[in-house]
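Ticket #4471: structure output looks truncated?

Reporter: J.K.
Steps to reproduce: submitted the chain below (127 residues) through the standard prediction queue, then opened the result file.
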Amino acid sequence: MLARLLCFGLTGLANSAVGWAVIFGGLWAGMNGLAANAAGYGVGLVLSFTLNRRFVFGVTGKVSAPEVLRFLAAFAIAYGVNVAVLLAAQGVFGADSALAQVPAIGAYIVIFFLLSQFVVFKPAARE
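Returned output as attached by the reporter:
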Protein backbone atom coordinates (compact mmCIF):
# COMPACT_ATOMS: atom_id res chain seq x y z
CA MET A 1 0.00 0.00 0.00
CA LEU A 2 2.94 2.36 0.61
CA ALA A 3 4.12 1.92 -2.99
CA ARG A 4 0.60 2.66 -4.20
CA LEU A 5 0.48 5.80 -2.04
CA LEU A 6 3.80 6.92 -3.52
CA CYS A 7 2.47 6.37 -7.06
CA PHE A 8 -0.66 8.28 -6.06
CA GLY A 9 1.49 11.20 -4.91
CA LEU A 10 3.54 11.17 -8.12
CA THR A 11 0.34 11.10 -10.14
CA GLY A 12 -0.88 14.12 -8.17
CA LEU A 13 2.31 16.00 -8.93
CA ALA A 14 2.04 15.14 -12.62
CA ASN A 15 -1.58 16.22 -12.99
CA SER A 16 -0.86 19.40 -11.00
CA ALA A 17 2.05 20.27 -13.30
CA VAL A 18 -0.07 19.65 -16.41
CA GLY A 19 -2.99 21.61 -14.96
CA TRP A 20 -0.75 24.56 -14.14
CA ALA A 21 0.77 24.41 -17.62
CA VAL A 22 -2.71 24.59 -19.14
CA ILE A 23 -3.66 27.50 -16.88
CA PHE A 24 -0.53 29.51 -17.63
CA GLY A 25 -0.60 28.53 -21.31
CA GLY A 26 -4.21 29.67 -21.53
CA LEU A 27 -3.36 32.98 -19.89
CA TRP A 28 -0.43 33.42 -22.28
CA ALA A 29 -2.75 32.67 -25.22
CA GLY A 30 -5.18 35.36 -24.08
CA MET A 31 -7.81 33.40 -22.14
CA ASN A 32 -9.34 35.18 -19.18
CA GLY A 33 -8.32 33.94 -15.73
CA LEU A 34 -11.54 32.08 -14.97
CA ALA A 35 -11.54 30.22 -18.30
CA ALA A 36 -7.86 29.34 -17.99
CA ASN A 37 -8.40 28.08 -14.45
CA ALA A 38 -11.39 25.96 -15.47
CA ALA A 39 -9.47 24.49 -18.41
CA GLY A 40 -6.48 23.68 -16.21
CA TYR A 41 -8.57 21.99 -13.54
CA GLY A 42 -10.59 20.11 -16.16
CA VAL A 43 -7.48 18.74 -17.84
CA GLY A 44 -5.93 17.99 -14.43
CA LEU A 45 -8.98 16.01 -13.28
CA VAL A 46 -9.12 13.99 -16.50
CA LEU A 47 -5.41 13.20 -16.24
CA SER A 48 -5.76 12.36 -12.54
CA PHE A 49 -8.63 9.96 -13.24
CA THR A 50 -6.76 8.31 -16.10
CA LEU A 51 -3.42 7.89 -14.32
CA ASN A 52 -4.96 6.83 -11.01
CA ARG A 53 -7.30 4.36 -12.66
CA ARG A 54 -4.70 2.62 -14.76
CA PHE A 55 -1.30 3.07 -13.16
CA VAL A 56 -2.05 3.53 -9.46
CA PHE A 57 -5.03 1.22 -8.94
CA GLY A 58 -4.62 -1.11 -11.94
CA VAL A 59 -8.14 -0.83 -13.33
CA THR A 60 -8.47 -1.71 -17.00
CA GLY A 61 -11.39 -2.05 -19.35
CA LYS A 62 -14.21 0.27 -20.21
CA VAL A 63 -14.74 3.38 -18.10
CA SER A 64 -18.25 3.55 -16.62
CA ALA A 65 -20.32 6.59 -15.74
CA PRO A 66 -20.74 5.44 -12.10
CA GLU A 67 -16.95 5.14 -11.81
CA VAL A 68 -16.47 8.70 -13.08
CA LEU A 69 -19.20 9.97 -10.73
CA ARG A 70 -17.54 8.20 -7.77
CA PHE A 71 -14.24 9.85 -8.71
CA LEU A 72 -15.81 13.30 -8.90
CA ALA A 73 -17.61 12.74 -5.58
CA ALA A 74 -14.35 11.59 -3.97
CA PHE A 75 -12.62 14.70 -5.27
CA ALA A 76 -15.41 16.93 -3.91
CA ILE A 77 -15.31 15.26 -0.49
CA ALA A 78 -11.51 15.43 -0.28
CA TYR A 79 -11.58 19.08 -1.31
CA GLY A 80 -14.27 19.82 1.28
CA VAL A 81 -12.12 18.23 3.98
CA ASN A 82 -9.15 20.23 2.67
CA VAL A 83 -11.07 23.50 3.10
CA ALA A 84 -12.32 22.55 6.59
CA VAL A 85 -8.81 21.64 7.76
CA LEU A 86 -7.40 24.79 6.16
CA LEU A 87 -9.88 26.99 8.00
CA ALA A 88 -9.08 25.25 11.30
CA ALA A 89 -5.33 25.52 10.68
CA GLN A 90 -5.65 29.19 9.81
CA GLY A 91 -7.11 29.69 13.27
CA VAL A 92 -3.86 28.29 14.69
CA PHE A 93 -1.25 29.62 12.24
CA GLY A 94 -2.98 32.74 10.91
CA ALA A 95 -5.07 33.37 7.81
CA ASP A 96 -2.11 34.18 5.56
CA SER A 97 0.28 31.52 6.84
CA ALA A 98 1.60 29.01 4.34
CA LEU A 99 1.94 26.57 7.26
CA ALA A 100 -1.85 26.32 7.40
CA GLN A 101 -1.77 24.72 3.94
CA VAL A 102 0.36 21.78 5.11
CA PRO A 103 -2.26 19.91 7.18
CA ALA A 104 -4.94 20.84 4.63
CA ILE A 105 -2.97 19.32 1.76
CA GLY A 106 -2.14 16.28 3.89
CA ALA A 107 -5.82 15.74 4.71
CA TYR A 108 -6.75 16.06 1.03
CA ILE A 109 -4.18 13.47 -0.01
CA VAL A 110 -5.16 10.95 2.66
CA ILE A 111 -8.92 11.29 2.10
CA PHE A 112 -8.67 11.22 -1.71
CA PHE A 113 -6.34 8.22 -1.60
CA LEU A 114 -8.58 6.24 0.76
CA LEU A 115 -11.71 7.05 -1.22
CA SER A 116 -9.94 6.15 -4.46
CA GLN A 117 -8.66 2.88 -2.99
CA PHE A 118 -11.86 1.69 -1.34
CA VAL A 119 -14.71 3.41 -3.18
CA VAL A 120 -13.75 4.73 -6.62
CA PHE A 121 -11.38 2.03 -7.84
CA LYS A 122 -12.42 -0.71 -5.41
CA PRO A 123 -11.06 -4.22 -6.04
CA ALA A 124 -14.35 -5.47 -7.55
CA ALA A 125 -13.90 -2.89 -10.32
CA ARG A 126 -10.51 -4.34 -11.27
CA GLU A 127 -11.91 -7.45 -12.91
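Triage note (M.O.): checked the attachment and the full C-alpha coordinate line is present. The two ends are 19 Å apart (CA to CA).
Status: closed, working as intended.
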